[in-house]
Write a structure and sequence with these properties.
The chain has 2 domains: about 10-90 and about 135-205 and about 245-275, NAD(P)-binding Rossmann-like Domain (Rossmann fold, 3-Layer(aba) Sandwich); about 95-130, no CATH class. The longest helix has 16 residues, at about 135-150. It has helices at about 20-30, 45-50, 90-95, 100-110, 135-150, 175-185, 210-225, 225-230, 235-240, 245-260, 265-275, and strands at about 10, 30-35, 55-60, 80, 155-160, 190-195, 200, 245, 265. The protein is about 40% helix and about 15% strand. The structure holds NADP nicotinamide-adenine-dinucleotide phosphate. NADP nicotinamide-adenine-dinucleotide phosphate (NAP) binds near residues 12, 17, 36, 38 and 63.
Amino acid sequence: MAQPIARRLLVVGGSGFLGSHICKLAANKGWETVSLSRRGEPELFKQYGKPDWAEKVQWAQGDSLDPASYKDLIKDVTNVVHTVGILMENDYKNIAQAQTLCEAASGVPRIILGMNDQGNPLDPKSNDRPRPTYEMMNRDTATTIADEVAKLDSIRSFTYISASDVFPLIDPRYITTKREAERYLFRHDEFKTVVLRPGFMYNVQRPSAVPIAGALQFINAVTSPFKKGIASLPLGKFITTPPLQTEQVARAVIAGIETEEAGIFDVEGIEQLSRVTI
Ligand SMILES: NC(=O)c1ccc[n+]([C@@H]2O[C@H](COP(=O)([O-])OP(=O)(O)OC[C@H]3O[C@@H](n4cnc5c(N)ncnc54)[C@H](OP(=O)(O)O)[C@@H]3O)[C@@H](O)[C@H]2O)c1
């Protein structure tokens, strides 16, 4: 009988909305799983307690833009999944992590007006932190770590969570920086590159996303016979692209690693990959 391959998986942004689901599946498969993020353990554990699977994950602190902060951590890594990224440069966290739709909506005018959340002006650390840009978060966090893991003999694959070009009213640099990162990764031949391009993602841990996903699923079902015509209208791509649960995307990530797939997977491809049972 074939022996299971020993894996050491590094999930960059493993404490995030999608990253934590990837860590959960990988740890439950018995893979050695390391999460890298600036704050370490997910904030949710402070609120709701630490689940059993999380005890099997190493929750490391480090910044993917700063190789010295994860130099020792990447030793013997076989597979990397990169899940860092921002949809908006202004106040994105407050909106994305809002607990209700009202809370999320209250942040929207600030974004439209281009007002930055500069944090607490009395916090002495606030001036040291550079403002996150699309270039830094969507592209450089991936290219920096890719250059580092490419030096390892153990490295086999790099999975990059990109995005479909469906989001309305978002700066085009959101997608151009994602595409720049994709092209950069495919130029590395030390590892196989897998790119997943989800549209809107949801689960109950981000309550503001659930009603949006419900509305999108309903509109999707109603408009499916006219999908092609509607997709070319303003907002058309957003309303005709099915939302994906984070669990579904995480299953596709794991299947992509196990099947040693390479290439680009759009929403339909992610749905298919998530159904592959290994
Ligand atoms: N959410 C959606 O609907 C959606 C749709 C399409 C595509 N995507 C893409 O999917 C990916 C995952 O999205 P998400 O919603 O799960 O994101 P998220 O919840 O914001 O998680 C991002 C994670 O990255 C970590 N991080 C940020 N900067 C870092 C750095 N410099 N070094 C190391 N870790 C860093 C964060 O933790 P710390 O802050 O502690 O470092 C966090 O764990 C992103 O690339 C996003 O663009 C999301």
